[in-house]
Write a structure and sequence with these properties.
This protein has 149 residues and is α/β, with parallel strands linked by helices. It contains six helices and five strands. It comes from Pinibacter soli.
Length: 149
Amino acid sequence: MSFNLSLPIAIGCDHAGYEYKAALVKWLEEKGYSVKNFGTDSLDSVDYPDFAHPTASSVENGETAFGILLCGSANGVAITANKHQNIRAGLCWENEVASLVRKHNNANMICIPARFVSLDQAKEMIETFINTEFEGGRHANRVGKIACA
């Protein structure tokens, strides 16, 4: 399944991901995508769940095509987003992982560790995430078993 890119792309971060988020919003808009920014919008220290939850909710509710979350390690935002029943947030630190979370896990959010990848790597992973289809097949059965309820 591919993303409905007539919807905006959701993006959120904490203070550690702010500079990348600002650059990525500009880059995505220059590529013609609509972006819905869930903050934060400064380097001031914040609590990542305050931004990860609304970003994930927008994806879960179908208001946005997919989500991008950034923080220092991306673990906090990934853990938070994955608390949402219909979210499959994948932590990606290299391009092959970004491909596999789409192909095998049908991820609808990509979580990027801003302190461990370059901005160019982040862009490459997002491009891959957008352009990679879920393979379905044997993976569909596995993905179907993820939800707890």
